[in-house]
Amino acid sequence: MLLLAALFVLLMSLPFLVEGCGWLALVGFVPLLCMERVASENGLKHFWWWHYGTFVAWNAVTTFWVCNATVGGGIFAILANAVQMSLVFGLFRWVKRRMKQGGSVPYLFLAAAWIAWEKYYLTVAQISWPWLVLGNAFAGTSALVQWYEYTGALGGSLWVWASSLSIFGLMVALSDGRFSARWNGKARVAAVVGTVLVLFGPMVWSWVLWNRTEVSEASVPVVIAQPDFDPYHKFGGLTQDEQNAVLLDLFAQGLKEMEKGNPEDSSAVLLLAPETFTSDILCNDVPSSRTFRRFRSFLQEHPRGEILFGASSLSIYDQKERPSANARQFGDGTWYETHNSALIMDTLGRYGIYQKSKLVPGVEMLPYPSVLAPIDDKLLGGVSGRNVGQKEVSNLVFNQDVPIGCAVCYESVYGEHCAKYVRKGAKLLAVITNDAWWGDTPGYKQHLNYARLRAIETRRDIARCANTGISAFIDQKGRILQRTTWWEPAILKGRVNLSGEETFFVRAGDIVGRISVFLFVLLLAAALIRRK
Predict the structure, then answer these.
(1) Where are the alpha helices (DSSP H) in 380-490?
(2) Residue 374 DSSP SS3
(3) 29 partner at 20 to 30 Å CA-CA among 9, 50, 209, 241?
(4) Pairwise pLDDT comparison (176 vs 427), residue with the higher score
(5) Above 70 in pLDDT, residue 236?
């Protein structure tokens, strides 16, 4: 049992930790299914502890780096996420006992229940940590999943389950003698061919899509500045004016090099800065910001540029009523809300603003604030983040006519969320993030690779700016065309393709998730009404 558990952890961790190992996830659940079969046949009691411990180990090996930012939060994320995985697996075991003659039906229920849980995580849950969605296992092997433009990442989750269950089914049929003694020739051929198709059919489909020509209506020049400020010393090391000077020097250098390389090009240039670059933005009066005024002076000296940057911002309300459950008060009784914002501005001082809406639980937002806010305020001293985001996504507009969908950090993990930018007309995607909170661990590499999946799902080029790296240009196939090194100041210059076409995933949404929810409810109802 221990060997099988270790094999499961190895097979399911390597795809997230090592690029090019995504294919291992296709057999990753086979050891766990074998563990469950051994436990069932031998009447092993308290098997829950075995599969819970196995899920804890997988979560810990793959996402241990969260503890670099917050030890308590990291441990909670690992243990709580493993609990939910174990609840899904435990529910499968209950359905299997309930349907003793159910054959493959309980295993179909397991796949549907798992994907339905992932769907809930991605769209409904306020306490959400979808980092280990099974479809994300292919983020470093994006050439295998070009069909995400139809299914989204949950299509990859379905592929993982279909492959593991097919292989496990063949193994069981061979071990109990059914394959040779009970199945006729046609059944054996069908089982083998079916398994081969499940494993390799999506790869062939991906290869066909990979060889298609990319769509491009036009392109825009982009300069990405990676200032490389240590976030743990950002607010105590350099003043905001000094940080502004570092960033603008990088932009000036990038613009100079771009103009030198193509002096006849006079088109507007998108200048991309990282998440939470400044903290002096007042949403009620953005032009009063010292950073905003400095940026405008820079743009007047470099009129081709428009700056897209991140800010920790405030909205102030001079009223008696509390504006929202997450609002807090200054000492004088004035209400205020905090935001994680993305802003774009031009030479004339015109600007657009977007408030990050997919917020990190605990760090940026308090889940279920109407219930938990009083507890946090009175018992914990208000330690939880209380950012307020937009209810619906909106695009920022570059050069007055190019809509940009700007995912702020954690938002780039959510496929359907990023698809909403495209539904609203985004012709390219930007990702601004920090990624330095976790140190030099697999965390920032995984986060970079998840942006590659968003490029495939939406077929949009992505310009990604990370404070300490890795910043990158990603094309519509999920290929990283240019990238910076980790923890070094850097500049990236390039042209980003624009597209107005919508993929099937953008138009239809997450069909795999919706079907899985339906099957989960249907099969659970069948198990509940079935007589023992």
Answers:
(1) 415-423, 442-458
(2) helix
(3) 209
(4) 427
(5) no
pLDDT digits (tens, 9 = 90+) for 21-37: 999 999 999 999 999 99
Nearest to 374 by CA among 318, 326, 322: 326
370 in the same domain as 317:
yes
5 in Cβ contact with 57 (< 8 Å): yes
Q: Determine if residue 244 is left, alpha or beta; phi over 0 gives left, psi from -120 to 50 gives alpha, anything else beta.
A: alpha
- Cβ neighbourhood burial of 210 (10 Å; 0-12, 13-18, 19+): middle
Compute CA 298 distance to the chain's CA centroid, rounded to the nearest angstrom.
34
- How would you class 330 by CB atoms within 10 Å of its CB: exposed for 0-12, middle for 13-18, buried for 19 or more? exposed
- CA max distance for the chain: 83
Verify that 96 and 118 share a domain, yes or no.
Answer: yes
Residue type, 499: S
> According to the model, what pLDDT value does residue 235 have?
54
| Residue 446 CA to its chain's centroid (Å) | 9
Helices 47-63/2-17 angle, 10° precision: 30
pLDDT digits (tens, 9 = 90+) for 181-210: 778 888 888 889 999 999 999 999 999 999
Do 114 and 254 belong together in one domain? Answer: no
**Which residues have C-beta within 8 Å of that of residue 454, sequence separation ≥ 6?**
407, 412, 415, 418, 429, 431, 460, 462
Number of domains in the chain: 2
Question: In the beta sheet, which residues pair with residue 402?
Answer: 398
206, 261: one domain? no
